[in-house]
Amino acid sequence: MESAIKTVVGVYLKSAKGKESLGEKDFQTLVKGQLSNIMTDTDSSKAVKEMRQGLDDNQDGKVSFQEYMKLIGYLANALSQQRSSENAAAGENAAATKSEAPAAKEAKPTAGEGPAKAEAIPAVKAEVADKEEEDEEEES
Predict the structure, then answer these.
(1) What is the pTM of this model?
(2) Could you tell me if residue 91 is left (phi over 0), alpha (psi between -120 and 50 degrees) or otherwise beta?
(3) What is the DSSP letter of 42?
(4) Cα-flanking dihedrals φ and ψ of residue 43, to 5°?
(5) Euclidean distance between CA atoms 2 and 104, whole angstroms
(6) Burial class, 136, CB count within 10 angstroms (exposed 0-12 / middle 13-18 / buried 19+)
């Protein structure tokens, strides 16, 4: 966990290039380069701009570290919820019958969907959760 926190902070500081906050271009580069495996629409300049605006509480056109942490918190929460629902679905499928195909994964919302301030933040991709579960099983 300590390593993950250091990585989150390090990525922000490197992306900010010594400044106190991320400008539009720096934020877009961070999202596209660091989050494209767990978020949808990272290639869309419009979607990333909407996401940045949704995070920008003080409306200064930049993303501060605190505002960036809202994004990280949202992604962590979305991944947690996704894993919980996948585990529940897997349990239900196993109990029902072993011969049925597993439940289909939920569709990923795109930027512009979702609640209030997080409305432009895309959801975590199911593939990342699957990969992390495989990695955890290999470590066991």
Answers:
(1) 0.66
(2) alpha
(3) T
(4) -80, -15
(5) 34
(6) exposed
Q: Two tokens at 79?
A: 């991944």
Choice between 95 and 89, residue whose per-residue pLDDT is larger: 89
Looking at the chain, which runs of residues are DSSP E strands?
21-22, 63-64
pLDDT at 133 (0 to 100): 56
C-alpha span between 55 and 62 (Å, rounded): 9
Residues in CB range of 35: below 8 A, 6 or more apart: 42, 75
Per-residue pLDDT at 91: 77
Spatial CB neighbours of 129, under 8 Å, sequence gap ≥ 6: 79, 82, 83, 86
CA neighbor of 81 nearest in space, from 124, 117, 38? 124
Determine the 3-state secondary structure of 64 from DSSP: strand
Cα–Cα distances in Å, from 50 out to 23, 76, 82? 13, 20, 23
